[in-house]
Amino acid sequence: MKFKRNERIGGIVKILSDSPNKIFTLSYFTQKFNAAKSTISEDILIVKNVFEKLNLGKVITIAGAAGGVKYIPKVSREDAKELLNELCEQINDPERILPGKFLYLIDLIYSPQIVSKVGKLFASYIDYSEADCVVTIETKGIPLALATANAMNLPLVIIRKNTKISEGSSLSINYVSASKEKIQTMSLPRKSLKEGSKVILIDDFMRGGGTLKGMEDLMKEFKADVVGKGVLISTDTPQEKLVEGCISLLRLIRIENDSVETIPNEDVIM
Amino acid sequence: MKFKRNERIGGIVKILSDSPNKIFTLSYFTQKFNAAKSTISEDILIVKNVFEKLNLGKVITIAGAAGGVKYIPKVSREDAKELLNELCEQINDPERILPGKFLYLIDLIYSPQIVSKVGKLFASYIDYSEADCVVTIETKGIPLALATANAMNLPLVIIRKNTKISEGSSLSINYVSASKEKIQTMSLPRKSLKEGSKVILIDDFMRGGGTLKGMEDLMKEFKADVVGKGVLISTDTPQEKLVEGCISLLRLIRIENDSVETIPNEDVIM
């Protein structure tokens, strides 16, 4: 089958965009579109240009034997600002306040459309160039972490909160979640993480950082190295967290019985 | 800013492909690309052609006031066959057999690349034209269900397995999971599902169907209508399941202590 330039461009965009951070060789495209290398190289230049002009992320060419083309999702500051402001507007609805000053957020953090954007945002602010996988803890962080792993083209690992899991031998640790003020257990099957891995931790919400601290401790048991961590929302109080260097996209400034205020993190949108 | 046809085609493909099943108006594109309606209409014809020629799904035009263009992910029989055969090859590795004849599958069912393909596959075989949301139960089905919800452009709802959830008032039911042979509880916050919704149930694994039956029962409590259900793998035994009409992509024919056999479901790939 023969393809016109327009059609090749459309096809290349679709293929790259469906698999962020995956390297496609020139030969892959020459075979797919039955075209010469020089033709495909020209096509790719045009594709690069489209992504740049439309602020859709970056398309880069990697030289050498293992070389090829890949698409790196990158959210511009303006788009980040718009997304986070929209999220805050939705979160700051007093109807979301639950007994015990919890926030009802699952409609947002389970939304495929929202998490796919937030995943690209994490991939824009967390350096994952050395990372081997994304790690999260069940349940509410899973959609965000999956979207992040997808944007980073990394496997996802999910820590379980109980030990009744049938996934072979597991490593467990105890941790204290500040919000619940009690000792809990988190476990991870041995098979699911190689010793010495470099990992990115992702979760939905951080108050004191007890859960993330637990995740860090569990990673130590796997001799894994935490090379980045991100949460969607962190609370301003307590100011001192149990973990350092966590990127938070939103700040929960205050929550009362009848009002709540969340703002985008200045470091992310400035 | 002015765009060449090539660039517009690339941009339109990226935008449609990033948001499956979302309707974009012609005006959205005329503004984005600073071009006339007739020009954009021509572009869209080319985009339709690309998707068809490359078997990437369908792009359709909807007439009328609420009209526009949308991309419908659709996996061809050949691609489905290839994907499911590859999955079986990976699953049928005796190393995956765990004590108690469980199968270690989390590296596959948590893989962003795999679930995104499986999600499109569910969207190709389950009729979701009337559906309001995708419903799953924690934990292992979540990535599959999120990818499915994404392909269908529907919100995701996650049923929890414990009642210690801080999401406001919840509805709970008891169910018997055949594989564990004990009574368990599943809960869903009232806020998270509108009464009378039409839902698609997605899970990773079905043995007797106890969990899916529980999900159906919980849906009844919400006066919700189950309009479709799908699992990645169902076991051949027991032959009689507690639920009917569930689409299973793979069949687990047998699992012994040292060998396992899974095959693609003929109904899906034939």
TrEMBL record, chains A, B:
Residues 4-73 form the Bacterial purine repressor N-terminal domain. InterPro entries: PRTase-like (IPR029057), PRTase_dom (IPR000836), Pur/Pyrimidine_PRTase (IPR050118), PuR_N (IPR015265), PurR_Bsub (IPR010078), WH-like_DNA-bd_sf (IPR036388), WH_DNA-bd_sf (IPR036390). GO terms for biological process: negative regulation of DNA-templated transcription; negative regulation of purine nucleobase metabolic process. Keywords: DNA-binding, Transcription, Transcription regulation. Residues 111-250 form the Phosphoribosyltransferase domain. One of its GO terms (molecular function) is DNA binding. Pfam families: Pribosyltran, PuR_N. NCBIfam families: purR_Bsub (TIGR01743). Belongs to the purine/pyrimidine phosphoribosyltransferase family. PurR subfamily. Homodimer. This is Pur operon repressor. It comes from Peptoclostridium litorale DSM 5388. The gene is purR.
